[in-house]
Amino acid sequence: MDDNYSERLFWEIFHNKYLVHLIFKQIHCVEWIEYDDPQKIHPENRKKFKDIHSLDWMIKKNLYQLIKCKLESNDYIKISKSSITTFFSALMKSKLELVTSTTTTTTINKNNNNSILREILILFLKNKRVEFEIVDLINVATQCNCIDALEILGNEPYSLKINPSTLEYAITTCNPQTVQILLKLINNNKGKNNNMNSLKIQTIKKNSINLALKSENNQQREKQLIFLFSVFDFKNNNDKDNNNLKNEEQPLKRFKSIHNNSDHNSDNNKNNNNNNNNNNNNNNNNNNNNNNNNNNNNNNNNNNNNNNNNNNNNNNNNNNNNNNNNNNYNKEIIEIEKTIIEYSMFLLFKDMELKNKLIDLNIISKNSVKLLDLSINSSIEDYLLALKITNDNDKIVFNNNDDKNNDKSIKKIQKLLIKTIIKSLPSESLNPNKPDQTYKQVIDFYLAYTLKYKKTIKELHNYNNNIKNNNYNNKDDDNNNNNNNNNNNNNNREFIHFFRILELKENGILKSNLPTELENLKWNPILFEILKNGHDDIIIVSEKSILDWILENNNNWIVQSFLIEKDNILSFRFESVELLSYFLNLCESKLNIGTEKFERIKKITYNYLWSNSVFNFNIDNLKSLNSLGIMFKDDGEQLISRKSATITAPTTTTATTVTTATTTTAPEIKVLIEYFNEIGFKNFSKSSFKLFQNEIINQIHYPSEMYSSIKLKIENIEVSIIKEILIESTLSVDLPILELIINSSIFDKKDGNESITNEDSKKLISFNHSECDRFCDSPRWIFSKNKVIYHCQKSSPMELHSIIIKLIERLKSTTIESYKSLVLIIKFLFEKLIQSKKVTKQQIIEINSLFHSNSVPIKHSLYHSFYYLQIRDSKFTKFILSIPTIADPLSRNKEKYYNCSKEYDHNKNIYDIIDYLEADIFTFDFIFGKNGGSGDYINSFDSIIKMLVSQLFYNFLNTIPYPYYLNEFHQFMNSTLNYFLLIKRTDLFFDQFEIIQSYLDNLHKKKQTHTAAFPLKTYLYQVPANALLPTSKFRDESIRKLPLMPPTESPLTKTQQQQQQQQDDDNDLFIKPPVLINSFDFSPNVISLCCKIMNPNEIQRLIEFNFYQSAFHSSIFDESIFINNFEISKFILENYQITISSLNTITSAPELLNSCDSYLESKFFLENYFQRVKEPFKFQSMAFNQSKELFKVRFLELLQSYFLKIENQDSYEKLIDPSVPFDIKELILKEIYYDLFHQFEMDVVDNPVEPHELISIEKSNVQHRVLPKLFNQSEYQNLFKTIFQEDTEQQDEKELKIKYINREDNIFISAFVLGIVHLCNLIISYYPNQFKITKSSITNAIKNNNIHILKYFYNNNSNKINNIKNDPILLNHLKNSLSNNQFYKYDMDWID
What is the largest CA-CA distance in the chain? Predict the structure, then answer.
C-alpha cells in the first residue's frame, strides 16, 4: 500500500462527519487505562482541556504543564483558598523530594517538578494576582513549610508583608528553616513595617521559647529551640538569682574534667602539672590529667564561663581559648518573657547544649523533678546534667572532653550522683519498710550500677549496719588491690559486694553484714552472673573451672541455695558438647537435683547447643549431638533464635556481654544441608525444622536456583511433622519451604522394580479428612464491608505462577498416595494466584490450560467466579460492589470481610451474593473462553455484564413479593444506571429503560395501593411535554415522535373522576383535583452523571422517558448549570421553557462555594442570555410564583390531607355544616391556606403523620366523597380564587429594585462577602452602578477573612460602583473594623 493511497484514505475518513464523530466518540468513551482497583473507574479520569478549570484538581493530578499552559494563554482557572494550600504543599513536597532523591533520573524528574511549580507561582503573581492573592499568601506558605514560595513572595519584586501572627504560628508549628526565612524577610523589610507591627514582632521574639514549647511534637519542639538559641541571645531578667550571681560574682561549682571531679582532682599524676588561669569577670576551674609530660594551659576569657579539659600523653599541648560573649556578637539580644518549662518536658530533650542553655536561663520547673530519670546506660552528659539541675546551691558547668565516654569517667560520675542524692535524702526516706519514690529510684539506679561494675559504694552501707567480719579490708571497696598477700581480703571483699548487691536486689536495703560461714569458700564470678540473671536470661559457661568450683563446693549452702534451690542452674548453657556432658555428669552424680529438674536441664541445654551449632555451622557439635539420639523440640521451652540478641558469657576472671550476629552464605548452607541429608534429618521435630527454616533456609533470597538444586532427604522425620509443616507453609503461602519439601525425596516414586513395604507406606504424604478440611475451611475473603476487594500480597503473582507450574510438573513423579494431597496444595495456591493484585490474564489462562492437560480437577466456586471477573475486567467487580446491599451479611455478622468459606446465617430477605452469582454460570470458560480462529473472547463484555445484571439484580427481585420489591427495584435500578454511567456506557444505560417501562405498565394494571419509592407519583405540572418551545426541532415529528401521555391516576374514585370530568367540561374551575403520573425517580447521582457524560441528543432521550414528570427538564437544567456543562444548559434553554430565577448557585446557597463555579455560571447567563437576567431584582418573585403555582396544583390534595388529622375535625364539621355562616367558613379556609402554604415553603408539608393522629378509614372514605363535591361548588371556587389573588405580591418595580439592591443576598454582595473579585467585576460590568458596597458587606467580608476584596475595591477607580476611599462613612467603618481585628490590625498600611 503506497503512501498516496494511505493519505487519500485518511482524508476521506476525516471529511466523513459520521466516521469522525464515531471515532472521537470512541476516543472519549473508551477507558485507555485498565484499573485493577474498581474504585478508580469513574468519568473524572479523563476530561477535555476546555472543561478543566479547577486548580485543585489539576494539582492533585500532577498536571503542572497544563496549569502553566493555561496561565500563559490566560485561560480561566478556578482558584479557591484550599487550592492555594494544595499548590504550596505540592511545591514544598517537590523541594523535599528533590533533596531526598537518590538516582539521577529521579533527581531530574523531581527537579523538573520543582522548577515548573516555581514558574507557575511566578505566573500566578504576574497574570492572575487578583484571583490568586485571595489569602495571606505568606501565611499559607508558612503553614505548608514552603520555603520556595516564601523566597519568591517575600523578596523583590513582590515583598509581601509578614503578619506577626504568621511568625507566631511558625515558631509553634513549622520547622526551623521556615522560621529562619521569615526572620530573614522581616529583617530585610524592616523599614516597611509600621510601629505596631514591629512591636508585636518583638513581643513574639520575647515569647518565642514559650511558643516553641507549645508544639505537640517533641522532636519539632527541640529543633525549634535549638534554632532559636542559634539566632537569639536570650537573657532572663526575671531571674533574681542570676542577677545576684552577676553582681556578687559568687563562685560556681564547675566540672572542668571528666577525670577530675569534686572527689578526685588528680589521678596518678607522675610529673609536674602547671595550670595558669587568667580570668576577667569570670570563674574558672581547670582540672588537668597529665601523664609523663608537662602541660601548659592558658585560658583567656572575657564575660564568659569556660570549661577546659586537657588530657595530654607524651606531648606538650598549648590550648588558647579566646571567647567574646559566647561568640554571640551577631545575635540579637532578647529579654525573654516569663517562661517555665516543666521538668517532664525538659527530660524529653536530647541535645545537651540546649539543656544547659535552658538551665542557665533558670526556667526549668523543679516542682516535679524526678531526680533519677536515668538509666545505667545514659550518657555522661545526662549524668552531669542531673547533677547540675539537682544542685540547689551551685550551678555545675562542664565541658565535653574527648574522653567523656571513657568507662572510668562515667563510673565516677555515676558514683558521685548516687552518693550526692542519697546523702541529700532525709533519714526517714531511708526506711526500707516505708520508702518514698525518690529512695526507690535511687536504689534501682544503684542496683543497676552494682550489677554493671560488680562493686558497691562502701559509705552507703554504713548507715544501719556495722561490718562484723574481722577480715574485711577497711579501704574503699572500689580500690583494686592486686597484692597476692591479700588474697583472703580480696576474696572476702568480693563476697561483701555480692551480699550487699543481693540485699539491694531482694530487699532494697543498704546492708553491710557478711555471713560468717564463708571462711573456706573461694570466690567465683559465676555468683555475680547469677545476680545479674533475669527471668529470661541465660548464662554461657565456656570454662570447665566454673563446673569444678561447683563440684568442689556442692555441699556449701551458697551453691545449694543460689544454684540449685533457686533454679539458677537452669540458666546454664554450654559452648561445646564436652562441657555439656561434663556438666550433666556433675548434675546426675554430685548435685542434689531431682529427676524432673535434671531432665529439663538436659532438654534445654541440648536444645540450645543444637540451635547454636546450627547457627554457627558447627558440624562437629551436630555430629556429637546426633550420636546421642536426642529429639530437638521445644515442648514449652522454645528453641533459641539467633534474633534473641544478647547473652552473658562469664569466665573465671571476667564477664562480658556477647551479641550473636552471623552472616549466612550459600556455601555454608549447602554444607549444613548436606550433613542433615546425610543423617536423613534424624532427630528433627517440627520446632527444630521450623527453626532450621527460619534461620537458615530463609536467608536465601527467593526465588533462587538454589531452591531447585536442593533436595532434602527428610524420610527420617515423622510424617505427621512433615504434613504439618507442609500444610502450614501452604496456608501461609510460605513458598521457599514449600518448594523444598515438595522437591524432597519423600514425594519421589519408587523404581519400577521396588515394592512398597509397610514401613515405606507409613512415610507417604497423604492428607486425612481433618487435614483436608483445613484447606477447605481456610478463609476465602473477596471484599470488605467498605466494598474494597481483598488481595493476597504474601507472594508475587510471578512466584505463585512459577511454583504452581513446578508443582504440576511434580505430579508426574510423585506417588499415587501423595497425588491427591499435592493437587489440593496446587488448587489452594491457584486460589491465591487469582487473588493477587497484579496477576495477568495470560498467567491464569496458562495455568488453566495446564490443569486440563494434566487432568488436575478444579471445582469452581463463588470465590473463583469473583476473581475471574476481576481479572477479565475490573468493571465487572465494580458492578458487583455497586449493589447497594452487597455488604449486608458482613454488617449483620460483624465481620470485616466476606468469607466464601463461611455460610452466613441470616434471613432470606438479606442479600447474599452467593445466592445469585452462580459459579456454574460464571465459569472460567464463560469468562475467558476464546474463539480458536480470531482469538477474541467468546463472550463479550456486554454479554457478561448483561448476565451479571440479570443474575444479581432481577433474580433477586424475583424472590421478593409485591409490593415489597418496589423499593428494592428503585434502589437497585438507580445503582445499575449509576454504574453504566460511571463506565461511560450510555447505550447500556438506555437499555434499562425498556425494563423500567415494563414494570411501570405492570404496576398500572394492579389495583393495590402502596407507598413505595417506585413508581414516583408526580403531578402533571410544568412537565417537559408542555414546556417544549414552539421553535424546538423536536416538535417536528419527522425527526422523532414524542412520547404519548401515559395513563393518569387521581386521588378520586373512577365515578368521581367521571363526575369531575363532566364538571370540568361545564365549568372553568380555579382549583382542580391533581392529576398524577407514574414515573421513575432517577437519583441525584444518576442525574449528575447524565449531565457530565451525555450529549444533547442523549439528554433529550432521557427527558422523553420522563416526558410527563413534573419539572424533570428543569432538574436536568439546574444540574447542568451546577456542574458547568453549558452545552446541555444551552440545549435545554433553546428547546424548553425554563424560568431563570438565579444568576448563580452561591446567591441562594453560599455554603456550596467550593462545590460549584459561580463565576462560570454567571458568565454563561450574562454572555448568552442577558435579556433574561437583566432584572435580577425579579429573581425572588419568579421563584415565589413558581412555588405558588405548584402549591395551587396540590392545594385540594393538601386540603384533604389536612382534614384527615383528628386535631382538625372541628374545622371540617364547620365546613360541611350548612347552618354555619359562609363568612365563618371563609375565615377557616383562609387560616388553613396560610398554614398549609407556610408548611409548603418550609418543605414539611409532606412529613409523615403517626397513625394515631389520623381519623378512621371509614371516616376518611366519607370525607373523600363529601369534600370534592363541596369544593367544586362555585362559591368555594370563587373563594379559593380570592385567597390566592390576595396572597399574590404586587409591588412596584422601582420599589422592588431598590429593596433588592439594599439586600445582603443580592448577586453582588453575595459574591463580595465571599471574596470572589472576578465575579464582582463581571457583575458590575453588566450591571454598572446598580449595586453598592455597604457597611455590613465590609463587616461580613472581614468576618469571612476576605480582606483581599476590600483592598481591591479600596484601590478600584472604576466608576461602576461606589468607592470606599471616597466614602467617609465606609472608610471610617473599614478602619474601625480592621483596628478591632486581632490579625488585620497589623495590616493597615494600604489604607491612606
Answer: 141
Task: Look up residue 397 and give its three cell numbers.
Answer: 558547668
Contact predicate 1318/1159, CB 8 Å? yes
pLDDT tops 70 at residue 710: yes
Least confident of 235-244, 661-670, 686-695, 853-862: 235-244
Residues 6+ apart with CB under 8 A from 780: 831, 861, 863, 899, 900, 901
498: left (phi over 0), alpha (psi -120 to 50) or beta: alpha
Q: Report the SS3 class of residue 1024.
A: helix
CA distance 1255 to 1232: 18
CA 553 to chain centre: 63
- Tell me the three state secondary structure of residue 874: helix
> Minimal CA–CA distance to 404: which of 259, 242, 621, 208?
259
> 544 φ, ψ to 5°?
-70, -25
Euclidean distance between CA atoms 839 and 827, whole angstroms: 16
What is the per-residue pLDDT across 751-801, written as a single tens digit (0 to 9) for each?
A: 554 555 555 566 688 899 999 999 999 999 999 999 999 999 889 999 999
pLDDT for 1269: 87
**Coil vs helix vs strand at 288:** strand
Long-range (24+ apart) CB contacts under 8 A made by 745-754 are: 745/711, 745/712, 745/713, 745/714, 745/715, 746/714, 746/715, 746/722, 747/810, 747/813, 747/814, 747/815, 747/818, 747/822, 748/813, 748/814, 748/815, 749/813, 749/814, 749/815, 750/815
Residues 501-548: tens digit of each pLDDT:
888 888 888 876 667 666 677 888 888 888 887 766 788 888 888 888
| Rounded CA separation 913/783 (Å) | 11
* pTM for this predicted structure: 0.80
Measure the CA–CA gap between 1315 and 73, rounded to whole angstroms.
24
| The residue to which cell 545476680 is assigned | 531
Picking from 1198, 1378, 507, 1381, the residue whose alpha carbon sits closest to that of residue 1389 is 1378
Q: What is the pLDDT of residue 35?
A: 83
Question: Cβ neighbours of residue 323 under 8 Å, at least 6 residues apart?
Answer: 301, 302, 304, 306
In the DSSP assignment, the letter for residue 51 is G
Q: How confident is the model at residue 107 (pLDDT cuts 50, 70, 90)?
A: low
H or E element at residue 307:
none
Question: Rounded to an integer, what distance in angstroms lies between the CA atom of residue 481 and that of residue 934?
Answer: 97
The vertex-63 CA angle with 61 and 68, nearest 5°, equals: 150
User: In 10 A of CB 169, how many CB atoms?
Assistant: 18
Residue-wise pLDDT tens digits, 896-949: 999 999 988 767 788 999 999 999 999 999 999 998 777 899 999 999 999 999
If you average pLDDT over residues 1236-1246, what whole number do you get? 90
Give the DSSP H or E segment for 312.
strand 309-313
Q: In angstroms, rounded to a whole number, what is the distance separating the alpha carbons of residues 580 and 607?
A: 11
| DSSP H or E segment with residue 79 | none
- Strand (E) positions, 1065-1199? 1076-1079
Q: Which three cell numbers stand for residue 747?
A: 514425594
Q: What is the DSSP string of 937-977?
A: BSS-HHHHHHHHHIIIIIHHHTTS-TTTHHHHHHHHHHHHH
Length of the chain counted residue by residue: 1392
Q: What is the pLDDT of residue 392?
A: 53
Q: Which residue has the cell 526516706?
A: 429
Name the DSSP class of 430. G
Per-residue pLDDT band for 103 (boundaries 50, 70, 90) equals low
**Do the beta carbons of residue 334 and residue 230 sit within 8 Å?**
no
